[in-house]
Design brief:
Number of helices: 12
Shape: globular
Distance between the termini: 15 Å
CATH topology of the largest domain: Quinone Oxidoreductase, Chain A, domain 1
CATH superfamily of the largest domain: Medium-chain alcohol dehydrogenases, catalytic domain
Largest sheet: 7 strands, mixed
Radius of gyration: 20 Å
Number of domains: 2
Number of strands: 19
Structural class: alpha/beta
CATH class of the largest domain: Alpha Beta
């Protein structure tokens, strides 16, 4: 089979690999959809090359892609009720831990007490290929009502947004300000709207703000055109500020504004990776009794709950994807995605 490999320096290759064979406790997933995630760009852009980032296995380069969705086509030994797995529509939780610590046994394998053994698409072969091998315990059933494209979105970006909203305890009566309307932020806008909450969407790109309106945003703010973002949010909330904020862009000024936009007793959640935040602890946190939350992806249980929530409410997660690609188009797909001027892409190996 062929798979997409990131080389760093905004280069990638499509290389030939042996079709995977499941070992004990493993399954092989035939990939039907593999999403492109913003965190892929860290490895795609890496100036020092792939090896320095640690995503080359002993046997050679790693196949990219950590938003897998497909059908189980083979199982290894030690997989309980082997035959029942074949034909299962599934997403994959893209972390592997020890499997026995309290975090792994509750589906939080990225929080493994022994340290994460593998991150699929980064340190182990991922989903930008025809097939993917992984432990059976990392699979999450994909409801029949949802497409494989939706499953790919839930496997990282949309699942991350759902988990963050759960951490925020978002309620229908709340106003939430969502900073950044890339794939994660747009997912959060869509899901928050579905809860009945009032959504204020923020982004410096007018096209992304327009999409946010299509996904249910009630108000939009362009920070590049607004000298006082917290003041603009307070103006839209009768001077109080938002009950909840979610920051997805990793921009330091957005993180600070997300906290400063809160009303008293408000909650801010950060999901964007990397970077730092500078706050006036007394005025931004203590004297507002504010809560600052960090949220890192989701558990297998949370992934299943997210999928069920979307299926039950008929949320059109497929609309997140603006581009569908064949694996052969990977170079053009990532060059476009790298520009961050378009929406989310997905590889459909059958396309």
């Amino acid at each position: 089979m062929q798979g997409v490999v990131f080389l760093g320096d905004r280069k990638l290759e499509i290389r030939d690999f042996e079709d995977p064979v499941p070992g004990p406790g493993e399954v092989v997933l035939e990939i039907r959809a593999s999403g492109m995630c913003g965190s892929d760009l860290k490895f795609y852009r890496a100036r020092e090359g792939a090896k320095s980032l640690g995503f080359v296995m002993a046997g050679g380069p790693v196949i990219a892609g950590h938003e897998p969705s497909g059908v189980v086509v083979a199982v290894g030994t030690e997989v309980q009720a082997n035959e029942a797995w074949v034909g299962m529509r599934a997403m994959q939780h893209h972390y592997q831990g020890c499997g026995v610590c309290p975090h792994c046994t509750t589906g939080w394998m990225q929080m493994c007490d022994e340290g994460v053994k593998s991150v699929y698409g980064i340190t182990a072969h991922g989903a930008h290929a025809r097939y993917m091998k992984c432990p059976a315990r990392t699979l999450v059933a994909l409801p029949e009502e949802l497409s494989f494209r939706a499953g790919a979105a839930i496997s990282c970006g949309t699942g991350t947004a759902y988990a963050a909203l759960e951490r925020l305890d978002l309620r229908p009566r709340h106003t939430i300000a969502i900073f950044g309307q890339g794939p994660v932020g747009l997912s959060a806008t869509q899901l928050a709207h579905a809860t009945g909450a009032r959504v204020i969407a923020l982004d410096t790109d007018a096209r992304r703000l327009a999409r946010a309106c299509e996904f249910g945003a009630d108000e939009t703010i362009n920070p590049a055109e607004c000298g006082d973002v917290p003041g603009a949010v307070r103006e839209l909330t009768r001077g109080f500020g938002a009950e909840c904020t979610l920051e997805t862009s990793s921009a330091p000024q957005a993180r600070r504004a997300a906290v400063q936009c809160l009303r008293k007793w408000g909650r801010a959640c950060l999901v964007g990776e990397g970077g730092a935040i500078e706050l006036d602890v007394s005025n931004d946190l203590l004297r507002k009794q504010a809560t600052l939350i960090g949220s890192w992806t989701f558990s297998t249980t949370g992934q299943a709950e997210c999928a069920r929530y979307i299926a039950d409410r008929g949320i059109d997660v497929d609309a997140l994807f603006t581009h569908e690609w064949k694996l052969a188009d990977a170079e053009r797909a990532y060059a476009m995605f790298d520009a961050q001027s378009e929406g989310k892409g997905v590889f459909l190996p059958d396309a």
